[in-house]
Amino acid sequence: MTKLYTILFLTCLVVNIPTLYGNVLEDEEFWEKQANSFDDYWKKREASAEQENKKAYIDDPFSFTGNVTDNITDLIVSDEKEEKKGRKLAGKLANSACVATNPIDRCWRCDKDWEKNRKKLADCVLGFGRNTVGGKNGSFYKVTSNLDNDMVNPVPGTLRYAVTRTAPLWIYFSRSMTIRLNQELIVASNKTIDGRGVDVYIVNGAGFTLQFVKNVIIHGIKIFDIQTGNGGLIRDSETHYGHRTQSDGDGISIFGSSHVWIDHVSMRNCQDGMIDAIMGSTAITISNSHFTDHNEVMLFGASDSHTVDKVMQITLLFNHFGKRLVQRMPRCRHGFFHVVNNDYTNWEMYAVGGSKHPTIISEGNRFRAPDDHNAKEITKRTLTTQEEWKNWQWRSIRDEMVNGAYFIESGPVLTNRPFAKNDMVSSKPGSYVVRLSRYAGALKCVKGKPC
Ligand SMILES: *[C@@H]1O[C@H](CO)[C@@H](O)[C@H](O)[C@H]1NC(C)=O
Ligand SMILES: *[C@@H]1O[C@H](CO)[C@@H](O)[C@H](O)[C@H]1NC(C)=O
Ligand SMILES: *[C@@H]1O[C@H](CO)[C@@H](O)[C@H](O)[C@H]1NC(C)=O
Ligand SMILES: *[C@@H]1O[C@H](CO)[C@@H](O)[C@H](O)[C@H]1NC(C)=O
Questions:
Q1: Is 63 near ligand 1, meaning CB less than 6 Å away?
Q2: Closest ligand to residue 189's CA
Q3: DSSP annotation of 161
Q4: Which of 147, 150, 200, 217 has the fewest CB atoms within 10 Å, counting from its CB?
């Protein structure tokens, strides 16, 4: 009898949580609809994506995260010297000299001919998404129209046409434009969406979907005020279109995909998650981006039952989590999450959390807690007991705590890391973070000048 009650109770919880917490992806109903909506084509895509996602998984993520940190510490040391030389000029250099402040940016931003060498960007990614080359091996495609009228046969020149092609493409924009996506934009593999040099706003419509794809770069665009799309017939590749159920209202939804790099994107106010990565998605880096005005910012893993998310490996690097954000930066399940040198200037409930034994290595971030006494804790463990979570490895290394912020650690101390012996930053990591993430969000790049 007790068992029966437990089951009933749990069932109620499962049913109720989605409405309490809000993300559509955590709703069982969503998954039932989703499963029934896959035709044979998508089932095949799912099977091959699953293989790719497993291949992208790194057996020893600890040695790898050490490599990323090495690169950052090298840069910080050289930066410090430079800043001593020219501190007074800092901030005014935009038009005269390169002010790239972190290793990803430094790799391309100082080139005044960045516009002629757009594909150089693909060599710059760090972290778990480091093998992402996007459309580097393909031709350029110039988007000339901001329209999005035909979901099944998108008009050449539109963004939807570009992202549904089979061949690898490096997609850029002829002019500044505001695009309202009628329905979710289903991006095919081997694509770069490069908004540099113009202002590209994706607003007031549906968001991006990366479903069972591999190798996508999204760079330098603004994604604001995203809503659900009603669904219907939508093209997802040159060779296929099909019926889609209502999209969930995410800014960027990464679904069963690998090798994804999101860099210098500005995002605010999406109806569901801002960036969600689910269903075994892995080999992802989200860097240099700026987030504001949102409740549930990032969901990595949608359900405790999706054990496929154990392959999930995601790096968050040099991002600025800014004003009016509430929670989930990110909220993790099962996988391995390296949260490095991000600036958290505000949250209302918590910053980093999760359930189901995720590994979270939080390193050199600056966490500024809100004034609310009840929200000083950075971390949140959902629906679990201390007996269970005490073994989850959640470590805070050289994070800077501001305004009473505190991180509750658990699990083993990090020891098996190659970076430890030549670790060079020990004093003021917080002040470095401000510098490292100073240019988070979409940049204003001008042709013929360092960006
Ligand atoms: C980390 O760097 C070392 C030395 O540069 C290299 O041998 C090793 O393969 C790297 N590890 C990963 C996971 O990339
Ligand atoms: C670190 O940076 C160097 C060059 O600056 C690069 O060759 C190497 O691949 C980077 N390591 C990692 C792990 O990204
Ligand atoms: C791109 O080209 C390089 C070199 O030819 C190749 O090794 C790589 O697999 C290609 N990658 C993609 C995604 O096209
Ligand atoms: C993407 O590019 C790689 C390397 O060129 C290729 O093997 C793969 O089939 C491409 N993916 C798709 C879906 O076209």
A1: yes
A2: 4
A3: H
A4: 150
pLDDT digits (tens, 9 = 90+) for 179-209: 999 999 999 999 999 999 999 999 999 999 9
**Which of 189, 212, 216, when mutated, tests ligand 4's pocket best, judged by the most ligand atoms within 8 Å of its CB?**
189
Query: How does pLDDT run across 143-180, given as a tens digit for each residue?
Result: 999 999 999 999 999 999 999 999 999 999 999 999 99
What are the tens digits of pLDDT across the range 348-393? 999 999 999 999 999 989 999 999 999 999 999 998 999 999 999 9
Catalytic pick among 45, 196, 268, 328: 328
Q: 393 with 411: CB under 8 angstroms?
A: yes
Per-residue three-class SS string for 66-95: HHHHHHHHHHHHHHHHHHHHHHHHCCCCCC
Tell me which amino acid residue 244 is: R
pTM for the full predicted model: 0.89
Establish whether 328 is a catalytic residue.
yes
pLDDT of res. 152 = 98
Q: Is 244 close to ligand 2, i.e. is its CB under 6 Å away?
A: no
Alpha carbon of 56 to ligand 3 centroid (Å): 15
> HSE on the CB side for 272, CA within 13 Å?
28
Domains of the chain: 1-37 (no CATH), 44-436 (2.160.20.10)
Q: Using the atom order of ligand 3, give the atom closest to the CA of residue 214.
A: 13
